[in-house]
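User: I'll paste a sequence; please echo it back and then give the predicted structure.

Assistant: Echoing your sequence first, then the prediction.
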Amino acid sequence: MYNVIIVEDSKLSRTAIEHQLAGEPDLNIVTSIESAANADILCMRGNIDLVIMDICTANDESGLVAAARIKSHYPHIKIVIMTSMPEYSFIKKARESGCESFWYKEYGSMDIAEVCRRTMAGESVWPEELPQLTIGLAKGSDFTDRELEVIRELVGGHKYSEIAVRLNVTENTVKFHIKSIMQKTGYKNTLQLVADVVEKKFIMPKY
């Protein structure tokens, strides 16, 4: 029997996950909480085997940050990180945090119970591809890694000169990437770009 913690700020989602896992004979839900801030404390107190954790939790607490804390102190605990947000960097950050598996709540055909079963059996379950979003005339996958870094800096409100310093490139290089981004998206200015990216949650600076 595996002891499980669920970290999810939506009561509706928590209830749905609890219902799905109720039919799993090897999974015992110890508790469900809203904020990732307390996840590692619960791991310290109990004999926990699996944490199912949303990336965006109550009080803007990041499940990715909490996952890294848990893995640093309790590397044997397996973590299934989950999200409904299509932020392009989440999968990379989840791997860096040490999570075993990643589940999109609103994309794909696999349910959370199957992900948990496979994870506890020793598999690492990851999406085959990112959710495809359209940013202006471009798909999310059309941007290079450097262009995505520049867009993230724009979303953070940084000027071209500041972006150059933060990315350790010249200001002309920043302008080159922004010109390429504008051509791909069809937008006339970066304000339109930032508004679309933020509205569609393609980039979420807090996480």
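The chain has two domains: 2-120, 134-199. The chain is about 45% helix and 15% strand.
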